[in-house]
Design brief:
The protein is mainly alpha-helical. The protein is built from seven helices and no strands.
Length: 215
Amino acid sequence: MTEGTDLTLRLPQALGPGEMEEELITQSWNTFDDIELELTMMGFEPLEKPKHSRPQLTLEILATPNSREYTEIYLKVEAWHNFAFNTMARIKAIMIGLQNEQNDIARSIRKEAAAPDPQGAKKPKANKASIEDLIEDHPRYRELTFMMQQYDQKKIILQSHVDSLDRDLKMVSRQVEIRRQDLDNGKRGGNISGHGGRRPGYGQGFNGGGGGDPE
């Protein structure tokens, strides 16, 4: 490689926001706590972990004829479903701020790399790969990348639980509806058998009178 063509070495290694500017960038994008407090004041508090353990649906549970037990199971599954869904939403909300902070740091570094030298010296035109390396090597940017990785991993694992709870909720809901229909059909069957399986004719059963057409 000829002298002067390695633009990576010529780029200042301290490109990007200074310590104070970096702190301001972090504060400006860290809006999650304020938003959560605002929603809490509106009555939408973060959901707490249910006090009961997550129900594991078994054949014995699904075969229980007790409607009350089925309703209790449904409410327990629903509580865990709502908790997992709310936790997933909070993770996604936090990641928005982290991503925006990364973008701000990258934009600051690109802007500095493209700016003219303050002393008027001619600057070599930096290639894109060199700038991207500086961005990814920035200490705060790397820290944010690590945090994003952790939240991504949590999100992937949590999504599997959300999907599983969603299937459980649908299954229990379907069984509750089947039992409700069976109960309604049983009531209708009892009413029909009470009438001997047929409707009385006009006038029958009233004061012991017979049926027939009115004169």
